[in-house]
C-alpha cells in the first residue's frame, strides 16, 4: 500500500497472525466494530490505519463479505464491520485508500507477529459502557477531522444536586408562568412588555453550585433571543453584566449560556424546555484547575462520545459561517478565524470587544440576531438543495448529497467540498427502524444517528487568556445544549449533574451567592436597565462600565433605587427544610467566605 498525499508514514504497519513477512493484502477493507472471535485468539489479517494529523487509529481487515456494507464478516466468525468505501466516493477517490488498486496494493508494508495477549485486549471489542454505534465514521474531510480530534475536552465536570429536588425533572413543563412558580424557586420577576417578562430562578437540577437561571416568562413560549424585544435583551444583558462583576467579587469564572432548538420534540433535544432560559454560572478556581489538569483530546474518546461532545456539524458550521458572515456588519463581536484555536475549531468563536461590558451593549443582541439569521439561511438553503420531504415526529426528510453543488451560498471551493464530504458520509438507511430509535434504552444510538428536527445551536459566553468570547455551537445530532456543554478556559466541558448531594453548607453558600447577586443588581449602575428596561434610555457601556463595587449614590437616589428594586425583586422561595440555613455559619463548609454584600451597610430596602 502506498502512502497517499498528506498521510504520514508513522502509523503502525499491518500485522498478521503467522510467520509470513510480506503478504499482499487485498480488499475490500472493513473497519472492525466488534470481534468476539479475536478474544479467543483465532487468526486473521488485520492492520491499523490513521488518517494522520492526530486522527484516531482504526482497525481494518480484508476478511469481509461481498454485498451489503455492514454485516457479519466471513472471517473471523462473529465479527462485524463496515466497508470503508461503500457508497462514499470521497473516501474511495480522496481518502486513505486512494492509492490502492482494485486487485492489489503497491509496495506492501512489512508485517510482524501480533504481540502476546493482544487479542484479549479491550481494544478488540466494545467496552460495556460504550454500546456499539453504527455510524461512528467521522463525517469531515481528513484535515478538518484531524483538527477536531485535537480539541481538548473534559468528560465530565461533576455538579452537585439537591438532596430533595422540589419537583420531578420533566421537559416542556413550563407552559405557563404558574408552572414556573410551582416547579422552580423564583428569585425575581421583571416585566419587559405587555406579554413579555423574565423570571430569575434557583434551578431545581443545578449545573453548578453557584448558579442562577433567567427564564423567559411571557404569555407565550418564545425559544430564541431573537424572538424577544429589545427591552428584554437589554434587561437580561444588564443582568449578565452585573453577574460577571459578582463572580469576580467571589473569585469565580462566569459562564453564561443558552440553547435554541424549538422544533425537536420527539427525540432528546438540546432545549428540553422550549422557553428561552439563560444559565448564569460561576465556576470555582478548583473547577477550572480540574479542567486544565484532566482535559484530553476528543479523538481519544469513543466515537459516540466524540460526536456528542465535539460534533462534526459545529466544526463544519464554523467554516461555512466564515464564508457567509460579513464581519463589518457586527457591532459588539469580532469573528475569530475558524480552526485557528481549539475553541474556534469546536465552535463559531467571536471575541466580545468590550469584554463582559458587551452584555450591556444593545449591539450584542443585534449581532446575535444577525448570526442567527446567517445560520437560518445556511440551514434553509442546504435543505432546499439537498433535502426532500417534510420533518415531523419521528420523520425526517430524504437526503440527496449530490445537491451540494446547487446550494445557493457564497462558499469557497474547500467549504463546498467539506459540505459534500459531510453529506456524503450520512447513512439515511439507519433511520428506518423508528421503533428501535424511539426506545429510550437506545438513546445513545438515537442521538448519534437520528438528526434534530431543525436548526439547533447553543451559545456560551466565557473568558480565556484575558479575553471574553461568544461561542456558538451548532448541533445536528448531539443532545447536549448550552449548560450541559460549555467552553471553559478554552476547553469544551461536559457537565454531569447530580454527581453528589449538596451539604447544608453548600446550600448556604448557594443561597448567599444568589442573594448577593440580586442585591448587587439593585445598587448597580446597570440596575435600572435590568429592572426597569422600559423606562431606561439606551445604555452605553462606555459611560457605565463595570467597576469594583456598587455605584455611589446620594442618600435620596439610594432610597429611590432600593424602593424601585423592591417592587420588582421577590423574596426567595425555598423548601421549608432550608429555612434554618440562614442561621448557619458558611465558614463551617471549608469553602471560601463569601464577600460582604455591597449593600450591607446602608440598605433599607426589602431583604433578598
Strand content: 15-25%
Quaternary status: single chain
Total count of helical runs of at least 4 residues: 16
Distance between the termini: 71 Å
Stretches where pLDDT is under 50 for at least 5 consecutive residues are 1-25, 36-40, 66-71, 85-96, 106-110, 118-133, 545-591, 596-608
The coarse overall form would be: globular
The domain count comes to 2
Q: Walk across the major sheet and give the strand order.
A: 8-9-10-12-11-18-19-15-14
Please bin the fraction of helical residues. Answer: 25-40%
In total, the number of strands is: 21
| Rg calculated over all Cα atoms | 27 Å
Structural features, described:
Helix content is 28%, strand content 19%. The protein has 608 residues and is α+β, with helices and mostly antiparallel strands. It has two domains: 1-125, no CATH class; 153-501, no CATH class. Strand 5 (70-72) and strand 6 (80-83) form a beta hairpin. Helix 5 (230-249) crosses helix 14 and helix 8 packs antiparallel against helix 11 (413-424). The longest helix has 25 residues, at 362-386. It is globular, with a radius of gyration of 27 Å.
Amino acid at each position: 500500500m502506498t502512502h497517499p498525499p498528506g498521510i504520514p508514514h508513522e502509523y503502525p504497519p499491518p500485522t498478521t497472525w503467522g510467520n509470513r513477512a510480506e503478504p499482499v493484502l487485498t480488499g475490500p477493507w472493513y473497519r472492525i466494530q466488534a470481534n468476539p472471535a479475536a478474544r479467543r485468539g483465532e487468526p486473521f489479517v488485520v492492520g491499523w490505519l490513521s488518517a494522520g494529523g492526530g486522527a484516531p487509529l482504526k482497525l481494518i481487515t480484508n476478511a469481509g463479505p461481498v454485498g451489503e456494507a455492514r454485516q457479519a464478516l466471513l472471517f473471523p466468525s462473529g465479527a462485524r464491520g463496515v466497508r470503508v468505501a461503500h457508497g462514499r466516493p470521497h473516501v474511495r477517490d480522496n481518502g486513505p485508500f486512494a492509492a490502492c488498486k482494485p486487485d492489489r496494493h503497491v509496495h506492501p508494508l512489512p508485517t510482524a507477529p501480533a504481540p502476546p495477549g493482544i487479542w484479549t485486549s479491550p481494544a478488540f471489542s466494545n467496552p460495556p459502557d460504550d454500546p456499539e454505534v453504527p455510524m461512528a465514521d467521522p463525517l469531515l474531510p481528513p484535515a478538518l477531522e484531524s483538527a477536531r480530534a485535537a480539541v481538548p475536552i473534559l468528560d465530565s465536570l461533576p455538579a452537585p444536586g439537591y438532596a430533595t429536588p422540589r419537583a420531578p425533572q420533566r421537559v416542556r413543563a413550563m407552559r405557563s408562568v404558574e408552572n414556573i412558580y410551582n416547579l422552580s424557586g423564583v428569585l425575581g420577576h421583571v416585566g419587559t412588555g405587555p406579554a413579555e417578562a423574565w423570571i430569575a430562578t434557583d434551578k431545581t437540577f443545578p449545573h453548578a453550585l453557584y448558579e442562577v437561571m433567567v427564564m423567559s416568562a411571557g404569555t407565550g413560549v418564545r425559544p430564541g433571543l431573537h424572538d424577544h424585544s429589545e427591552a428584554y435583551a437589554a434587561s437580561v444583558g444588564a443582568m449578565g453584566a452585573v453577574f460577571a462583576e459578582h463572580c469576580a467579587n467571589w473569585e469565580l469564572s462566569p459562564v453564561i449560556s443558552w440553547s435554541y432548538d424549538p422544533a425537536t420534540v420527539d427525540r432528546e433535544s438540546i432545549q428540553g424546555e422550549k422557553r428561552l432560559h439563560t444559565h448564569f454560572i460561576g465556576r470555582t478556581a478548583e473547577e477550572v484547575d480540574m479542567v486544565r489538569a484532566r482535559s484530553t483530546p476528543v479523538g481519544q474518546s469513543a466515537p459516540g462520545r466524540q460526536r456528542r461532545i465535539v460534533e462534526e456539524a459545529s466544526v463544519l458550521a464554523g467554516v461555512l459561517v466564515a464564508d457567509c458572515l460579513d464581519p463589518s456588519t457586527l457591532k459588539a463581536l469580532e469573528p475569530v478565524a475558524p480552526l485557528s484555536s481549539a475553541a474556534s475549531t469546536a465552535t463559531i468563536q467571536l471575541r466580545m470587544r468590550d469584554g463582559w461590558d458587551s452584555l450591556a451593549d444593545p449591539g450584542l443582541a443585534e449581532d446575535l440576531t444577525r448570526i442567527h439569521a446567517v445560520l437560518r439561511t445556511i440551514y434553509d438553503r442546504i435543505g432546499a438543495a439537498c433535502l426532500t420531504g417534510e420533518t415531523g415526529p419521528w420523520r425526517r426528510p430524504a437526503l440527496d448529497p449530490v445537491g451540494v453543488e446547487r446550494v445557493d451560498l457564497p462558499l469557497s471551493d474547500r467549504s463546498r467540498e467539506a459540505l459534500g464530504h459531510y453529506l456524503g458520509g450520512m447513512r439515511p438507511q439507519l433511520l428506518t427502524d423508528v421503533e428501535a430509535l424511539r426506545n429510550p434504552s437506545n438513546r445513545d444510538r438515537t442521538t448519534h444517528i437520528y438528526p434534530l428536527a431543525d436548526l439547533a445551536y447553543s451559545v456560551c459566553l466565557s473568558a480565556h487568556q484575558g479575553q471574553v468570547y461568544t461561542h456558538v455551537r451548532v448541533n445536528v445530532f448531539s443532545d447536549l445544549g448550552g449548560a450541559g456543554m460549555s467552553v471553559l478556559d478554552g476547553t469544551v466541558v461536559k457537565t454531569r449533574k447530580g454527581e453528589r448531594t449538596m451539604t447544608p453548607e453548600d446550600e448556604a453558600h448557594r443561597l448567599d451567592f444568589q442573594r448577593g447577586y440580586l442585591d448587587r443588581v439593585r445598587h448597580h449602575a446597570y440596575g435600572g436597565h435590568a429592572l426597569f428596561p422600559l423606562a431606561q434610555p439606551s445604555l452605553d457601556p462606555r459611560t457605565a462600565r463595570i467597576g469594583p463595587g456598587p455605584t455611589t449614590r446620594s442618600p435620596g437616589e439610594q432610597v429611590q433605587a432600593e424602593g424601585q428594586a423592591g417592587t420588582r425583586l421577590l423574596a426567595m422561595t425555598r423548601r421549608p427544610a432550608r429555612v434554618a440555613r440562614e442561621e448557619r455559619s458558611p465558614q463551617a463548609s471549608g469553602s471560601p467566605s463569601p464577600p460582604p454584600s455591597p449593600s450591607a451597610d446602608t440598605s433599607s430596602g426589602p431583604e433578598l
